[in-house]
Amino acid sequence: MSIKEQLQRQVQFFHPEKKYSFLRGGSSSVAHAALFGLREQFYNAMKEIFSSRVDTAAKTLCDDSDYVQAIKSLPFKTQAKIVVLGDSLTDDSQSWFSIIERSFAIIRPDDNIQFINLAVSGDTTTQLLGSVIPATQLKADLYFCFSGTNDARIQGGNRYKPCTSIEEVERNIASVIDFGQQQTNAPWVWITPVGVDPTRIAAHDFFKPLMANWCNEHITKVAALINHQAENVIDLRPHFTNLDDSHLLDDDGLHWSIEGQQLAAKIIIKQLVKVIR
Questions:
Q1: How many domains does the chain have?
Q2: What is the CA radius of gyration of the chain?
Q3: What 3-state class would DSSP assign to 24?
Q4: DSSP-assigned letter for residue 74
Q5: Are 176 and 153 in contact (CB under 8 A)?
Q6: 246 φ, ψ to 5°?
Q7: CATH, residue 108
Q8: pLDDT (tens digit, 9 = 90+) per residue, 72-117?
Q9: pTM (2 decimals)?
Q10: Which residues span the domain enclosing 12?
Q11: How far apart are CA 95 and CA 102, in angstroms?
Q12: DSSP 213
């Protein structure tokens, strides 16, 4: 992987404004660029690449009349807030959440619906316990929760255990569900993790130094827990099958390609109308 590719990946998945907003200069793109060793103009140019892909994906989806009608029918008032918690699949600069946000801007521009992305790359369901507090303070009209993939991360080799046991995942999910119910009146929609391509992960330059891989069996168990525990669930797994060498995954085998993100956005919107009315 070239230095440019490494930098693009870092800018795509890591967002200093989320973790360091409390610091002086935490909202400055100059400061953010400096953290990556980039000048502001190059940093912003990289971000524009991802923004352009999101725009193209959203415009393509907006050619689908069913997708457009679903967005039009969702019962969100003007200036409603939609908040998402999760990991890098959502923290991605070209995520499904960004595609949906852009779609609303195209289809319902006068509603000024706010999309607030609190997902953080690398987070597990354990980190959700901290993220859920600022999320509930936003008093949103809808919450998405898409986590669990990183609970299946194994570092040091497959002889070792996933970083979060299934028992702990179960308690984490239960705690987030309970806290959300106690602190908000809005619906919470959980999205199931779908799996990865371990072969591509093992061969990728980004993960080799970390000795990191992901266990699909563990991800399947996490998804089953979410289906069992959460009231509102969007299950993506039937649409993300046979992921070995799938075009729906990025070349690292873990993250989704823009095609995968676009598909997720489409499914989530079309299923969301059945979840909230």
A1: 1
A2: 18
A3: coil
A4: S
A5: no
A6: -75, 140
A7: 3.40.50.1110
A8: 999 999 999 999 999 999 999 999 999 999 999 999 999 999 999 9
A9: 0.95
A10: 3-275
A11: 11
A12: E
